[in-house]
Amino acid sequence: MSHASVPSYRQRIGYQAGLLGGSTLLAAALLVMGDMATRDTIELRKAEDLKASLSQVIPPAMHDNDLLAHPLTLENADGAPVTVYRALDGLQVKAVAYRIVGIGYAGEIESIMGIGADGKILGVRVLAHAETPGLGDKIEVAKDDWILDFDGLSLGEPPAERWAVKKDGGDFDQFSGATVTPRAVVGSIRRGLEFFQSHREALTTPAQITTTDPDAPVRSQP
Amino acid sequence: MSTDTETKPKTPWGRIASDGFWNNNVVFAQSLALCPLLAVTGTATNGLGMGLATTVVMIAAGLLVAMIRGQVTPEVRIPIFILVIAVLVTLVDLGMNAWLHDLHKVLGLFIPLIVTNCAILGRAESFASRNPVLPSAFDGLMMGVGFTFVLVVLGGLREIIGSGTLFANASLLLGDGMSFLEVTIIPEYRGFLLAILPPGGFIALGFMLAAKRLIDARIAEVKRRSAESGGEALA
After folding, report:
1. Structure confidence by residue, pLDDT tens digits, A49-64
2. What is the rounded distance in angstroms from the CA atom of residue A100 to the CA atom of residue B69?
3. Which of chain B's residues have a Cβ under 8 Å away from the Cβ of A10?
4. Domain of A113?
5. A6 lies in some domain
6. What is the largest CA-CA distance in chain B?
7. Using the 8-state DSSP alphabet, how is residue A163 labeled?
8. Candidates A23, A38, A133; nearest CB to B94
9. How many structural domains compose chain A?
10. Which residues carry this modification: FMN phosphoryl threonine (chain A) (predicted)?
11. Residue B86 and residue A11: Cβ atoms within 8 Å?
């Protein structure tokens, strides 16, 4: 690119500005097209992910509905909204599942927790975390059975004050070399149970489903 | 290989290839892109996925930048190149999220970081903005292949030492047909944490850089000897 051969209009400030503006417009158009082409597929993949993790904490035999259909939205103790997925048999609530979050060694540890209508834990699975590989990642079911120890427990069993790791005088094992991570998970599960207790009424009343929305997934009848 | 009719001097395809893969390798010679390199190479599969995504972006960036280089004035070229690269990376990110979702879950955090991979802007600036379309795309391909090569070797080393496997979860990236790649090198291995953590990446990269120097020295030695013996034969 030699400067001598560049036409004079290109050296005007207007050309430069127009060039930048035009390229930005073109880029924006491309991004919109890309977004439109992939949005539905990405939504579908995310729903599949959610369904897969929900099926780990609520046994599929327990319910006959689409777990993602008709979720409830309630407020937790901090006033933040919690989306609750309900497992229904007919219209009877058999179990609920929702996300719980604890602050671990390296940021948030996001888990999903399933609780039966009797208040007992059906299962807990960690969805996302950034804990140290080899130390803190034993909270993943793929690495260790630790998270399975919570199955069947509830807020009375063990009593609320013993919902902590052993180092803090509670009932649950920490890992050698990692206390912060299990402490965060145990704490998030305890808060999840407390959430269930304080909203027990709203969570377990039989579902009232109005099928006015034609796009809503159809409930399979028992 | 077809020659480009546009260029009067013959395009040095062979030199572009050897530069991209070895002599001017993104990591070995330019020491660029170390952040994604060390971040994702816990396993060979992650390295391969990151390398392929980067290669796609590099080829497309080379193509586009070479196409618009006549219109872009030197004063505004950097913002426009960055814009081109950012759009490409976002499109790759969306596409992977939609169609390679499982791999995206692993690499998702690092794909947007391809924008900050200075190697891509570096090639746009130093090669694609001065060369025709085909050689620029080819340069992007070879630079990407060179980068992928380093990612896979480093990922493989760290995976074998760190977890005792090789190409774990390769079927997520390449489809179920390639699951034969997933090998357990050391059964019942307890794992070696250091190799998976970032310091292990630095250490392994150091050994790879040393190996590259050794190989280069050996090649130079062989060339020197053959030149000497050639000279003696003439004399």
Report:
1. 888 888 889 988 888 8
2. 51
3. 73
4. 60-204
5. no
6. 67
7. -
8. A38
9. 1
10. 179
11. no
